[in-house]
Amino acid sequence: MKNRFLYGILVAALSINLLAGFQIYVYSADAQGKDDPEASLALLTQVMELIRQDYVDSDKVSYENLINEALRGMVGTLDPHSEFMPPRKFEELRDDTEGQFGGLGIVVSMRNEVLTVVAPMEDTPGYRAGILAGDKIIRIDGRSTENLTMSDAVAKLRGLPGTEVTITIMRDVLEEPKDFTIERAVIKVATVKDYNGRGISNKNAFPLDEDKIGYVRITQFGERTNDDLREALRRLKKAGMKSLVLDLRSNPGGLLDQAVSVCENFIPRGKLILTTEGRRESQVSSYHSRGSDRNKYTDIKIAVLVNGGSASASEIVAGCLQDATGEGYCDAIIVGEQTFGKGSVQSILPLEGGGALRLTTAKYYTPSHKVIHERGIEPDIEVVLTRDQSEALFWKRQAGGLDSLDDEARRERLSKLKDAQFERAKDMLKGISLLLNRETDEPERQLAAESEGGQKAETEEETTATAPNDEE
């Protein structure tokens, strides 16, 4: 009996060990299989063949269709900016980059899997129609955007100049979706403006206020942005500018080289502006300030205005200037709201057969190595505009914008609202200027007081010395 009991325990123990060993083996094999290319490709092939044999609609199951859709799905799960492009779509992309196209002038991105307006470009059809940053586009010409990729959505928004497209918008303050029918146009806008919306072509643009504070607004980063900015800064400096408000609010970005060139106006030669970093060494790049330090604006105080519509290239500028500290740098303070968080690099990789892969291969980093993508730039001084203040700013930036409003009460209410972010920036710059003047004047006042005290003492000595003679 005792032997049987011991034998039973031994068999049970061996069984448990065997089962545990088998589970460990299965787990190990499963873990390896998850990253085993042969097993994964075999699974893909098996599923594809089952679909070809048994799917009810035979016209949808060609090898080309199945592979293309598998690639679209695979790349589309990475991020909203990566995409597989079949030959025809790649050809359309090349046509767009080589010529002009008609569009609405709105920059869009995927936010929480919803097609969202990053910012409308000023002086464009979308801007004039009243499209706002943060608007959610739920339909384009009546078709839901729920399953559209970014590139498909952009393709539907674009078209021949003069043609119309209807987009359906959801907005926090709207009780129900609203349709906007907008005529496409060739998008060409002035990118550097003063507070009144005037560009470089206006000889009276870019005046200084009574406190010698200049103001420049960059609406996006185009081919001439830095040239126009330098001319604006030249006019302001000639007029005696002591400090500057650089407005990047609702600036959706643009050309990287222009963002770097804009930073170079305020950053000494040789200093880091940004880095782009990917997984491979060849995908790591750094951008440093070039050119002579002559005619740079490294000695002025700058307030940079940003909001949730500031994205991509504008975030590069804001991040660079925020990190700009130390001798020879400009002093910049970021004012406003957290930026959008679009800081990634997409590379176009041609494929055999004429297609291409648009793949996110790197991310932008500020000089202090803060990542921009999906985080944005946090302001040094947070100033959040109310809904009414944001609306007032929107209409005031359009020529005759407030006057175009039919609701008189609404027009009067909005006209009285101030730009709280701009006012805060000016107050900050004025405070810094007063403090610096006080620190500069204090040694002079002390020297003057000492000199005045010395002269008074000498006079008293002379009086004391001569008094007896006078009495005599």
Gist of the model:
The chain has 472 residues and is an alpha+beta fold.
3D structure, described in words:
- The N and C termini lie far apart (144 Å).
- Mean pLDDT is 83; it is low at 1-29 and 456-472.
- Helix 8 packs parallel to helix 9 (313-323).
- This protein has helices spanning 2-33, 37-54, 63-76, 87-98, 125-129, 150-157, 225-238, 256-264, 313-323, 387-396, 408-415, 420-471; strands at residues 83-85, 102-103, 106-111, 114-120, 136-140, 143-144, 164-170, 178-183, 185-186, 192-193, 213-218, 243-247, 272-277, 285-288, 301-306, 331-336, 344-350, 356-365, 381-382.
- A six-stranded mixed β-sheet has the order 10-11-12-15-16-19, with helices on both faces. Strands 1, 13, 14, 17 and 18 form a five-stranded antiparallel β-sheet that branches.
- It is of the alpha+beta class.
- It has twelve helices and 19 strands.
- It folds into three domains: 36-77, no CATH class; 87-186, Pdz3 Domain (Roll), CATH 2.30.42.10; 192-433, 2-enoyl-CoA Hydratase, Chain A, domain 1 (Alpha-Beta Complex).
- The longest helix has 52 residues, at 420-471.
- The radius of gyration is 32 Å and the shape is globular.
- 41% of the residues lie in helices and 20% in strands.
